[in-house]
Amino acid sequence: MIFRNLFSISFNKTAHRKLKLAKSSLDIFCERFYCDSKKDIDFTQIPVERIRNFSIIAHVDHGKSTLADRLLEHTGAIKPGGQNQILDKLQVERERGITVKAQTASLFYEYNNEQYLLNLIDTPGHVDFSNEVSRSLSACQGVILLVDSNDGVQAQTVANFYLAFGNDLVIIPVLNKIDLKNADPAKVTQQLQSLFDIQADEVLKISAKLGIGIDSVLEAIVTRLPSPKVARNGPLKALLFDSSYDKYRGVLSLIFVKQGSLKVGENIQSCYTQKQYEVKTLSLLRPQEQPVEQLVAGQIGLVGCNMRSSQEALVGDTIHLFGQKVEALPGFQPIRPMVFAGIYPMDQSQHVNLRSAIEKLTLNDSAVSVEIDSSPALGQGWRLGFLGLLHLEVFSQRLNQEYGAEPIITAPSVIYKVKLKPTKQNVKEGKDVITINNPALWPEPQQIEESFEPMVIGTIITPDKYLGPIMSLCMERRGVQRNATNIDNDRIMLQYDLPLCEIVIDFHDMLKTISSGYASFDYEDNGYVSSNLVKMGVLLNNVAVEELSSIVHITKSQTMGKKLVLRLKEIIPRQMINIAVQAVVGGKVLARQDIKAYRKDVTQWLYGGDVTRRKKLLAQQAAGKKKMRMIANISVPRETFIDVLKK
């Protein structure tokens, strides 16, 4: 009878709005009922033996976020058929289809009539965000190594495997996307065995998109992964392994409780800063925040304690109760920035807003280093360090989307080391070796004894038919081959020693172009080596412009100098005098281009007479231009610097 009356309603505007409101309320009720169905479980009573902390690691676009969605659905954390990639909360993540920020979710799973608490951490796959992976693994006892059944083992798969293997974590190999037409699970299983010595019977085969095999993954998490080695008795010890900023609550810290317990209202203290805080809120992420009154050892939770400064939430710090003396937990190795770029406001009136945005965003991304910098052309700004080019792009995009800032970002550079010749002042100050990330700070050649540039070990996995062009690209970028390994009949893994400065700009794009998108690339730090580096400067009518200088290898200086002066000739506007654009190293001119002056025809009004009148006027014009060249300042618009520095 109710349904008959419901369908007899005439669909005018008012009724339609009421139905939409009722449907919305019903959806909210269902979602809350579904997500809160496990709230009656007292998770503090779950013994440590039934807790599992794990991460999902994989190469880019192998299905990490999709698998996380299925795990959330199968354990009742979210409603089936809802929003995809529920853990990718940032706008930039949804636009680019990549995971940028590691996210956590606490799941309840029933196995053999017993409740288990599974703490899931979904990690990024791109090499530039390996810092997020490293932090996540510090709170885990095992990982799911996810591999695409269609693409097979990729470069970041190899890097993530050895990262987990080096942390003594249990690894569950899982093959995803077995439903695809070109999937070849047997071939990929053979790759896993030849590269990592993983036996075929250990590999799980699933389709995260269709939900095939998800129960076997959950069962493997319970049966294969160990429980955390923690003690619920004793003083509180908690590892702070991530943080975020909320404009209403300040800094929110994500912690892994290693020992003891933590309750709302207790006073905690940082081992590093020694600052004291009162715990205002505690919550589990399921994946929405679920307030709780207590966190116990073995669990991962979110703490709100009125931290207001980004310098207070130090990732890797140990949290303990105020007044108790405890030994700090071993943190994890922080990853140092490898690529540096200058960030300046579009207008100096926006300096304060941009500074506030950078402070809040660096709290969410502790891998970014910040130093104050200034430029005569661009004004006051900052020199920021990133883990790679994608990291830089995502950071600038988040500045724009989340805080409305529109900064000027200069071309990226790397950090060099210079050994200075011994002088009395250097010996006194102890500055025999200095680090430089800004070309304007490069010492004079007569002060340099030896220079060093950063190197990386690059891993490239490619089909063998692209081997020739890829090897040529690596040799062009001053690469030295380490080894080559056949993964299977048509795929090969190459390892090269490469200078970091040669790969930060366009190496990845070139690699994808010559391999039709099939090659994958990953790199890891390999220290510094001695190299013949020089500072290439730019002269405009013999006046040095420090903002346009760069540090290059001596063998590349000629080529790069020619490209730079040609570009400057195109974008510097013509003026009343001739402008000579020169690229120089030391006192040697490598390349030159002339920007012709505007020509005024001073003889246009002459209509005849002696030719000496014409010569006299032309001679006066030439003398005037000569005088102007001696006293005139070349006006280079700010947009010109922006255009050059961005490239």
TrEMBL record:
List, alphabetically, the CDD domains matched: EF4_III (cd16260), LepA (cd01890), lepA_C (cd03709)
What's a BP term from Gene Ontology annotated to this protein? translation
CC per GO annotation: mitochondrial inner membrane; mitochondrial matrix
Instruction: List positions binding GTP.
Output: 58-65, 122-126, 176-179
One of the record's GO molecular function terms: GTP binding
User: Does the keyword field hold GTP-binding?
Assistant: yes
Matches recorded under Gene3D superfamilies: 3.30.70.240, Elongation factor 4, C-terminal domain, Elongation Factor G (Translational Gtpase), domain 3, P-loop containing nucleotide triphosphate hydrolases, Translation factors
Q: Which NCBIfam families match?
A: lepA (TIGR01393), small_GTP (TIGR00231)
This protein's name? Translation factor GUF1 homolog, mitochondrial
Source organism:
Ceutorhynchus assimilis
